[in-house]
């Protein structure tokens, strides 16, 4: 009996030892897995943190190394890997570009846009909307054809899209990244880059087409100077004469024809870096593009305000194509005298829409 009991205890003890050994091996495997996962986590964190990645990938640059680079004594260790490149990996002109972009262009661009928006808001609160001085007659004049309206709204939509995506590319790191976090901002910046790069050339081509189509109506005349002296009718009580386009509209046109074309040209340089332009050229193109685009965005706020909320009847011309006879008399009297015999009633416009679908006469002007 005692012998059987001893054998049973021996079997139990051997079983316990096997269980203990198996448990120890499992514990060691789990501990090893935890250590490996911790290592992979540190690698992932280092990759997610650009500053930490830089300190791991490249040691700190000393003042002697900077002096060596600036003096041209770069040597093979400081050359970059781009084909046929004469630039150093540590590029002094790149730092100059970064300082100009971040310390001057970005803040002053936001001041210009924010300041313009604030002035427009203040003007609206103090002066208010410019209403028609006389009642509407119900007689209409065709001002914009369907083709020009479609071209205008396409260009306007692209302009707003490019302005918003460009502001995100320029300032999103400082604003949206802080508000939404890295994950959401990364998606925003990636989408902004794709939209900006692919829509930019389309906008450039269509803007040139629109500028060429409207050049005849925007040639400066003597009465445009009077329009500016009287502030577009806001200074004094006398009526200000204007042709198809007034002085302010012509100023916006020629701003687009000069600064706008410069922004388009610099954008093409940035969008297509495969024509052997060097880094210096790309850096200057970036500064010119940013300054011009920020300026146009600021001025465009005034154009948008006057054409929508600021002036009664102005938006109707670009949505329906027609303006009321009273609006034409008050804002473009010289043009009204040229086309006043072409007025039509709303009933006639409705009949044209039912017959032709556009509401326009069979032969229309494009401007």
Automatic annotation (TrEMBL):
It is found in: Cell membrane. Its main location: membrane. Its cofactor is heme. Residues 353-367 have a biased composition (Polar residues). Residues 346-367 are annotated as: Disordered. Keywords: Cell membrane, Electron transport, Heme, Iron, Membrane, Metal-binding, Transmembrane, Transmembrane helix, Transport. Residues 143-321 form the Cytochrome b561 bacterial/Ni-hydrogenase domain. SUPFAM superfamilies: Transmembrane di-heme cytochromes. The chain crosses the membrane at residues 104-126, 146-168, 198-215, 251-272, 284-306. It is a multi-pass membrane protein. InterPro entries: Cyt_b561_bac/Ni-Hgenase, Di-haem_cyt_TM, FDH_cytochrome_b556_subunit, Formate_DH_gsu. Pfam families: Ni_hydr_CYTB. PANTHER family: FORMATE DEHYDROGENASE GAMMA SUBUNIT, FORMATE DEHYDROGENASE, NITRATE-INDUCIBLE, CYTOCHROME B556 FDN SUBUNIT. Belongs to the formate dehydrogenase gamma subunit family. This is Formate dehydrogenase subunit gamma.
